[in-house]
Fold:
Amino acid sequence: MSPKKTDSRSESYDQTGQRVALTAAIMASFLTPFMVSSVNVALPVVGNEFSLNATALGWIATAYLLAAAMVLMPAGKLADIVGRKKLYLVGLGLYSGASFLCSFAVSSLSLILFRIFQGFGAGVMFATGLAIVTSVFPPEKRGMALGIVAGATYLGLSVGPVVGGLLTHYLGWQSIFWSTAPVGLIAFALVLFGLKGEWAEARGESFDLAGSIVLAISLPAVVYGSSNLPSLMGILLLAVGFLGICAFFLIEARISSPIFPVTLLGNNRTFAFSCLAALINYSSTFAVTFLLSLYLQHIQGLPPQRAGTVLVAQPIVMAAVSPLAGKLSDRIEVRVLASIGMALVALGLALLVFLDIQTRIPFVVVSLVVLGLGYGLFSSPNMNAIMSSVDKRLYGVASATVGTVRLMGQMLSMSIAVVIFTLVIGQVQISPAVYRQLLRSIRIAFSVFSLLCFAGIFASMVRGRLHSTRHQEA
Structure:
């Protein structure tokens, strides 16, 4: 059973605060994935300007992820102690300021440094944004709100490559950063002047500095180690990271005010299995765009812009379905909706196993639509389950957990794909000579992901009931 939560339907919820919080969350949730996807498009141009090799260029993207991973969980707990609005403002301000500074970078080193600060800001935003939305919306409207936020995220992913490409082509890569910084500042002003309240239900608790340091070292080790598999350095970093995470859990189990209450995993079935289902889902789906981009451009011979047009089918469907799925999760059991979504994702991945040289583009689009529909049905209801299954004083922790699980799943997904490529193709540049092995690698990866996602259906189904708990609280 999930622990009893302190919020109920009898509470008074400020509708103005709901509108402000939701608007700010929509802007922030759109901004971060838009930035990530648009910067990826601009990386070749950045590399040419600063004469960067592939490793240095990769650091421009990786530094952001590593910085976000370091601060997610500590920021979530700190927000519960000192106030979620305060921390959210810190995240928005840091993210917007760092974005503006990125546009003035004069070297790769300065750009990477500013991207690190941008990642810190994004991590704090991830850790507090969902917590604030959960705090201001009553349980019966929470799924709808979280679904809208999820839809904004997928909309950012959808338009990022297109708009980022146009901005880079006509105004230079710097325009991606200076044009989006004002959006963050507008969200900052909305929260500062329009959102009343602080939401610090864990006020007075001590902050776990030791656990924060261990986690800040361990998570980046896992993230960076995963991205360098199967090299020796990647294996060593991954081992250090996992040992550090084990040490983190031992520390958290022995202190009175942990940044992550380990008892949540043992005593809160809904929270534990919802997080597991999310980890499996992200691990199964994040590398899809990477794999299909290679397939469409190398095997099918499509130019990058046409490949991008095909790939945008999935996030567009996700953006359309997520708000509706979130609203449905306010009335229908999450385990039913999310499990149907997970099953559709498994079906979409299984369809992609049959890709070959003769596969027609409409088949790829249909497969992506099925994936997008399934992911949309899974994501926002599952997020609703995680956020609604914990006590108010842990909303920041739950929000940070969502971000951490997402990041770890994404890196695991890419690691699986990279390991398969290394084993099947080897450490060689992709060329027509290895197209047969490339196609085989892609099909093996989709086979692994579809089986993994099929197992995720059961993790989703056994999470327990959410609405029965709410009815008991009302």
